[in-house]
Amino acid sequence: MLIRHHLKVKFVEVIKGENTLVTKNSFKGLASEYDEDQYVFTFDSSKTLHKQAIYEDDNHYLLNVLKIYTNNTYFAVQYSCLNKESKKISHHFRCKDRGFSESLVDNKIFFIDFYKLHEANVSVYTEKFYEKLYEIKADFLNEYEVTFVFDSDNIYNYSYAYINGSCCRGLYGNTIPTETEILKNLIEPSKISLSNHITRINTSYSDIKVFHKTEV
């Protein structure tokens, strides 16, 4: 399955004091290089994080829910969480065929119930999993910055490449792909995907807004 740049789980450090996010207009200045290039967060600096989060449990604040459209057709949802212990933000992408219909995502109560039932524990596992990964750059197709990702047991997990400024991810499995496989199954399909018109809409109940860098 092809996952575009905004689907990749990455973490950004957040400064928090007295339960208020300490920045001026966005998280951009505090983000890792990847997230700083991709996302801007905006919020009301006069309000506490508790009052702006959509939902809170023992491990996370659910910060934002974002709808994604391809050529004006609803395609998926992306939600962002802040881990209370690590003070890191993670972005999670879910296609509509995984139960995240547009009508469910539009309804705050329905979305929170679905999130609590299916996603809260997944978010914890995903963060721990990704923190243990490491990367090795491929020695071919340098113009695409092809990178292989391995887990803590040195087992290959997936690859990603930069195409027209977007980070595209795929080729999951246990076998490191060849240059031909990278071209055929990652780069060429990604070029087609990137030719589509992608739009993102913050849900009405998301007080903390997330914008792609091309939208601000």
Describe the protein.
The strands form 4 sheets. Strands 1, 5, 6, 7, 8 and 13 form a 6-stranded antiparallel β-sheet that branches. The protein has a 4-stranded antiparallel β-sheet with strand order 9-10-11-12, covered by helices on one side. The chain has a two-stranded antiparallel ribbon with strand order 2-3. Strand 10 and strand 11 form a beta hairpin. The N terminus is likely disordered. It has 216 residues and is of the alpha+beta class. It folds into 2 domains: 144 residues, no CATH class; 61 residues, no CATH class. The protein is globular and about 50 Å long. It is built from 6 helices and 14 strands.
Beta-strand fraction estimate: 25-35%
Portion in helices: 25-40%
Q: What is the tally of beta strands? A: 14
Mean pLDDT: 75
Number of domains: 2
Q: In this structure, how is the largest beta sheet organized?
A: 6 strands, antiparallel
| Terminal Cα span | 29 Å
Uncertain stretches of 5 or more adjacent residues? 1-37
What is the helix tally? Answer: 6
Q: Which structural class do the helices and strands define? A: alpha+beta
Order of helices and strands: EEEHEHEEEEHHHEEEEHEE
Instruction: State Rg.
Output: 17 Å
Principal-axes shape call: globular
